[in-house]
Amino acid sequence: MDWLFLFEVAIAGLGAGGLYALAAVGFVVVYKATRVVNMAIGEILMLGAFVFFGFASGLGWPPWAAVPAALVVGGLFGGVVERTMIRPMLGESPIAVFMITVGLGSLLVGLVELVWSPEPRRLPAFLPDAPIFLPTPWGEAYVSPKTAYASAAALVLITGFMLAFRYWRGGVALRATATDRGAAYTVGINVPLVFATAWIAGSVAAFGAGVLLGAIGGISSTMGVFGLSVLVVVIVGGLDSLLGALVAGLLIGLLEALAGTFLGGEYKLLVTFGLLVVVLLIRPYGLFGTREIERL
Amino acid sequence: MRIGHAKESYAADEALLDSPFQWTMLALMIAGLAALPLFGDPYWVYLVCLIAIHVIGATGLNILTGFTGLVSLGHAAFLGVGAYTVAVLEARIGTPFPVNLLAGGLAAAAVGLVVGLPSLRVKGLYLAIATIAASVILHFVFLHWASLTGGPAGLSLPPATLFGVALDTPFALYWLILPVAGVMVLGAANLFRTRVGRAFIAIRDRDISAELIGIPLLKTKLMSFGISSFYAGVAGGLWAYFFRVVTPESFPLIMSIFFLAAIIVGGLGSILGGVLGAVFMTLVPEALKLGVGLLSGVLPDAVAILAPVRTVVFGALIIGFLIFEPLGLAEIWRRFRRLQHLWPFRT
User: Does the residue B347 lie in any domain?
Assistant: First the structure.
């Protein structure tokens, strides 16, 4: 066994896992506050990458302006989606809202293909690309700089989200809404505003993940497939747990890297979804999710 | 026009078609469909065959999602199982096609039962995601079990033969596909007049109450999965005979979304809705094609935008119907009928 190689694969996997975790945070924030399962998470992420592409390549903005601009558009997008599609469905069955997001995903893919055409593209390089070597007991391990910087950025963003939920007033309001919507109303929390905030925050996270993912692997309208793995991540981690999203994101990233290296690329999704089936059968509420007591 | 149509027995109240007017309309529709291939354009014959296949698939998904309340995003994969079973039997073994079609349905039903097993523990969106998992895994099997499925190139199959006649054109297949679709829709409509069908509805409305009144949840849910995927398998089998080539890429996730969109647009939990939705969703891309064809004089690359426009329209239809008309086309039709019953008076 070549330990150095294994180490490099594992680091690459954890790096990819950081992006999964960021996208998963975008999902979990929305789910926690509004109980909406956002099936369009992969497509929102793709939209983020293309919006960044539009600013950076189409308008020729420098990355330090284009990234914040893309995140702002992400926030606006989240707000608009919440107001026009999710708010009218308040109180409808969760399945109906779930299907709205399926429709939203289809809508976004079509729109992106209309505006930017389905061909894959490369984002202008904005992450440093000097190779990084980590000293290990087996020798110097090569780490892809793009993956390393992207996952570091993702981890910073995730930490920001976690701190905001813990200490920011709005974050506390969001957790209160998640615990008990009625009680949150009673103590004077503006629950619809919390919903809007959750969608804005969730979309910003997804847009951020999209920009970082695009910076590593290029962008195309089929990037939404990434969302399938993100769904697995949130279920494995527990739908309403930020920590779960982080841990499961890293875990799935690692698993996919190992499966991709040792079994072949086409086994990646198979292994991910195999894990999903196992988790659904043994622990449907995930590693860190709230266990809903319901025996049927 | 139908005011004063009193029902005097339970049987009359339960009847699927309750008035001479409806019987007349049905007879006219059947006569029209029978006349179509004799006088109509081959394109329309092709389109009606495709619609009929989609009607079977959508009705199957409606049994599961609309009537039992279990969302499936893996329906395309069940179609794939049916199509592959038929293709393998027809191309490799050469059994007669009614046997193949039935085997396709049963194989899909068996896979459906396995996929339905998690419904013991999970429901709602967890189940939906479990069905996505199933469809990913099935896609992998189609792609990698190359000795059976032909791998990425897929399988092509000879035409079905009936009494020595090769059913190799849409015109010939029309007489096979339409009756099968008719029988399956009728079967689904009658299913919900039986104990089993009502148990499905009870589970959809409130599973805990359903269990309390003595419905075995797992068994009934599995039965719903089985019946639904049987429908998908038959639709897939007909699909295989219709296109005569089956590849792993023939049954993508977007096809599952197509069927979901069809029953949402048509009306969840209504047999008529499933039929209307399948007709509507099959005709929308054709109408778009026509519109794009007209535009091609103005826009040079109008054909290139067809696929994305279709994706956008699918998404917009799902969202629009869920927000503005959650009961779908079936509800619009019901409103129209109420208007027509009382005409010239208004409700």
Answer: no
